Amino acid sequence: MKAYSLFSLARNAMSYHRNWQRAWRSPDPKKHYDVVIIGGGGHGLATAYYLATQCGISNVAVLEKGWLGGGNTGRNTTIVRSNYLLDASAGMYEHAVKLWEGLSQELNYNVMFSQRGLLHLAHSVHDMQEIGRRGNAIHLNGIDSEFLTPAQVKEMLPIINLDCHYPVMGGLLQRRGGTARHDAVAWGYARGADAAGVDIIQNCEVTGMRIENNQVVGVDTSRGFIGAGKVGSVAAGHSSVIAEMAGFKLPIECYPLQALVSEPVKPIIDCVVMSNGIHVYVSQSDKGELVVGAGSDAYNSYSQRGSYDFIEHTVGPLCELFPLFSRLRMLRQWAGIVDVTVDRSPILSKTSVKNLFFNCGWGTGGFKATPGSGHAFAHSIAAGEMNAIAAPFSIDRFNTGALIDEGAAAAVAH
Amino acid sequence: MFIITCPYCGDRDQTEFTCHGEAHIARPLNTESLSDEEWGDYVFFRQNPKGMHRERWVHAHGCRRWFNALRNTVSDEIFATYKVGDARPPLPENPS
Ligand SMILES: Cc1cc2nc3c(=O)[nH]c(=O)nc-3n(C[C@H](O)[C@H](O)[C@H](O)COP(=O)(O)OP(=O)(O)OC[C@H]3O[C@@H](n4cnc5c(N)ncnc54)[C@H](O)[C@@H]3O)c2cc1C
Ligand SMILES: [Zn+2]
């Protein structure tokens, strides 16, 4: 792999940028891999990257039915934060934020991680109690969070209408939160994994699971059978479909989650703003577009289309909070299929089938965890046992009752 | 989707309804002897199919009655709605 640098940029400018090396190869699948990862989203690619670079397992394939990052990785609103309530979540999401902080350097790929600050608004006594409880819990876990008065909120966001329907009563700010460039995360991990020997195989759909004596031995794909010592399923919205191939059910249901972007405008909002109370969240991309998150439809669907009334439910509160946005035109709207668990926490787990591991259930908020999830999952697959960060997220919790209820911290879908 | 046929009220806008997940999950009767596995399975684990799904809906902003629907989760097309307790309508031959 040729490293990217100012010099390589200058050198390639000489040849009109026609001679850049491809970021990753496109190999034909081998007959057998030590580990096969199903799903070429950020989490799957990160898993492969850490397997190859930290766990000494480079005979790895990532099988992606479409194109890299074409699932939720490329459809999300890119918010990164670690201000969750419970210890297990703090462990996972803060692990991820720490990795985010060095990720562009580590990957030699600019993932545009921008710690522009993330502000949760409170609009009621209940909201104030929620951010009070969560803010203090976050402190106890050694993670940054600050309470803001309405006046301080106004100072950060001069364009906000504090006196909106359900006036703003306060805010919880995580300065180390922010955004990252979603595609770049998938591409950066893909390039790094490929350089470390991982085969990234696109347009390769897993259609069946081969299991012998309750042990997975490979997968059937649209490009034939591929043998595997271990299989890690990281298929987000399609996890239940993969589980069905392996003969079990998951505690997951899938819903469409929508987002929209506006026409680009000059910098006007320089942090991420989210409100659980009136349900809206917004940030501004480096291109100038407002990135606006909507809610998830409350019926199971794999349609990748959200319903129209949700757009209205989203832009209404947005314009109430920021009246001047009412004149903006929206350019694009889309949906991703999110894999939601009942406690709004992910599943990283062994399964009833030997050597088959699942990483899923990230639902509406897994982008922020991409590096941490990949890292924890890679080490767990390599060891054959879930590591300390992943262990609380075992699928067994739905039978033992040890749920990790993050419903409040994840009340807004992001 | 967009128009849903309530078995009691007829065609109505989707926004009048709310969905409540997989239908026909019977509450186990022998609750004292149920294992943690069986409880967890009943409460949390779901088919979540990509394709035909039998599911529960409520006409929340209408007659407020519960009913079942047979819907394709890929196209969101509804093939049938039927009252709780009615026989399950058959799967369509060519789900689009
Ligand atoms: C609109 C929207 C907004 C969001 N906003 C945020 C946010 O602001 N912050 C945040 O943290 N999270 C957010 N999320 C959630 C986040 O996008 C996901 O949790 C995260 O991206 C999941 O990453 P992944 O790599 O697990 O999944 P994906 O990127 O979906 O990757 C899974 C891959 O598996 C592939 N696949 C599926 N089935 C098969 C098969 N049979 N064979 C081969 N490949 C297969 C898919 O094609 C896909 O590429 C949002 C999601 C949506 C939809
Ligand atoms: Zn009705």
Describe the structure.
The complex is a heterodimer of chains A (414) and B (96). Chain A is an alpha/beta fold. Chain A folds into two domains: 211 residues, 3-Layer(bba) Sandwich (FAD/NAD(P)-binding domain); 148 residues, D-Amino Acid Oxidase, subunit A, domain 2 (D-Amino Acid Oxidase, Chain A, domain 2), CATH 3.30.9. Chain A contains ten helices and 18 strands. In chain A, strands 1, 2, 8, 9, 10, 11, 17 and 18 form an eight-stranded mixed β-sheet that branches. In chain A, strands 5-6-4-13-14-15-12-16 form an eight-stranded mixed β-sheet. In chain A, helix 2 packs across helix 9. The mean pLDDT of chain A is 96. With 96 residues, chain B is mainly beta. Chain B has a single domain, classed as Folate-binding superfamily (Folate-binding fold, 2-Layer Sandwich), CATH 3.30.2270. In chain B, strand 4 and strand 5 form a beta hairpin. At the A-B interface, helix 7, strand 12 and helix 10 of A face strand 3 and helix 1 of B. The structure holds flavin-adenine dinucleotide and zinc ion. Flavin-adenine dinucleotide binds next to helix 2, strand 12 and strand 16 of chain A. Flavin-adenine dinucleotide (FAD) binds next to helix 2, strand 12 and strand 16 of chain A.
Compact summary:
The complex is a heterodimer of chains A (414) and B (96). Chain A is of the alpha/beta class and 414 residues long. Chain A contains ten helices and 18 strands.
How would you summarize the topology of this molecule?
The complex is a heterodimer of chains A (414) and B (96).
Chain A: H1 6-14, E1 32-38, H2 42-54, E2 60-63, E3 79-80, H3 87-107, E4 118-122, H4 125-140, E5 146-148, H5 150-156, E6 170-174, E7 178-179, H6 182-195, E8 199-201, E9 206-212, E10 215-221, E11 224-233, H7 239-246, E12 252-262, E13 272-275, E14 280-284, E15 290-296, H8 308-321, E16 330-341, E17 347-350, E18 356-360, H9 370-383, H10 397-400
Parallel strand pairs in A: 1-2, 1-11, 2-8, 4-13, 11-18
Antiparallel strand pairs in A: 3-7, 4-6, 5-6, 9-10, 10-11, 12-15, 12-16, 13-14, 14-15, 17-18
Helix pairs in contact in A: 2-6, 2-9, 3-9
Chain B: E1 3-6, E2 10-13, E3 18-22, H1 36-44, E4 52-58, E5 66-72, E6 78-83
Antiparallel strand pairs in B: 1-2, 3-4, 4-5, 5-6
The structure holds flavin-adenine dinucleotide (FAD) and zinc ion (ZN).
Residues 6, 8-9, 59, 62-63, 65 of chain B line the site of zinc ion.
